[in-house]
Write a structure and sequence with these properties.
63 residues; single chain; four-stranded antiparallel beta sheet; mainly beta; 1 helix
Length: 63
Amino acid sequence: MKTYLCLITVREGEVPRLRHVDSPHDDAISISLAPVLAEWTRVHRVEVMDGDRMVFVAETPAG
């Protein structure tokens, strides 16, 4: 199991919140994020990193 750093921006322009996500591998990040993201009803942007490498990015479309 690897530990990833996750930056979650709840609203555009806000300072991202830092969380740790444990996942068996990069391809399972989206599944491992579900319990972390359940903390908020809506999220603007999610970035997941493994050291210097960005492994997952998701953003709510503008509008």
